[in-house]
Amino acid sequence: MTNNTERLHFRPLEVTDVDWLMDWENNPSNWTAGDRQVPLSRGTFQRYVNNASETLAEAGQFRWVIERRDTKSPVGLLDLYQYSERHQRAAVGILIESSARNLGFGKEALRWLIDYSRDVAFLHQLFAEIGSRNEGSIKLFESVGFVSVGVLKDWLRKKDYFEDVVQMQHLL
Q1: Hey, CA dihedral for 67, 142, 33, 12, is it positive or negative?
Q2: Contact, 88 vs 70, CB < 8 A?
Q3: Other CB atoms within 10 Å distance of the CB of residue 99
Q4: Sign of the Cα pseudo-torsion (157, 59, 77, 146, in order)
Q5: Any idea which UniProt keywords this protein has (predicted)?
Q6: What is the pLDDT of residues 40-98, one digit of tens each?
Q7: CATH H superfamily, domain 8-123
Q8: How would you class 117 by CB atoms within 10 Å of its CB: exposed for 0-12, middle for 13-18, buried for 19 or more?
């Protein structure tokens, strides 16, 4: 299996990624699903990138940079995390840069990740937890075979309300 699709290339993080990674990760609009409430320092990102060479089995997670093959520019990040070797499963995370959304890159990246997870990582299933108001992300995951298997009520605290989380699963 290659690290390429028709339009995309998937590669591990590199030291040269720190600047744009800081911009993306420190953007509060990208914090909607996680617990972070403050920006992280350059040193934190440098340490993270320096340790990014660990395998999925070693670290329990792995992150790929999603690059356009034609321009070699990053358009997103793709994550496997909460990896369980025993249960052969992992959670999926994806972030596509706002200017690259609705161009099919997310769907192409998830299709590649499904193949990788089945054929290289030998996983049995993938799962994702998506805010119920994030209709675009829910539709994206459904378009590649994920199904809704449950709802966590009032799971994400927003500024003025709590949001449900849709649990999605894909058996490989």
Answers
A1: negative
A2: no
A3: 7
A4: negative
A5: Transferase
A6: 888 888 888 887 778 899 889 999 999 999 999 999 999 999 999 999 999 999 999 99
A7: Gcn5-related N-acetyltransferase (GNAT) (3.40.630.30)
A8: buried
- For the chain, the domains span 8-123
Confidence of residue 140 (pLDDT cuts 50, 70, 90): very high
Tokens (6 digits) for 20: 């744009």
The residue behind tokens 């409430």 is 37
User: Within its chain, how far is the Cα of 134 from the centroid?
Assistant: 15
Residue 125's CB is within 10 A of a number of other CB atoms, namely 15
142 neighbors 97 (Cβ within 8 angstroms): no
What are the DSSP calls for 21-72, one per residue? HHHHHT-GGG-SSSS--SPPPHHHHHHHHHTTTS-HHHHS-EEEEEEETTT-
The per-residue pLDDT for 55 is: 87
pLDDT at 28 over 80: no
Compute, in degrees rounded to 10, the torsion defined by CA atoms 70, 72, 75, 76: 130
Phi then psi dihedrals of residue 28, to 5 deg? -55, -25
Residue with tokens 């609705």: 102
Is the pLDDT reported for residue 31 higher than 80? no
Q: How many residues does the chain have?
A: 172
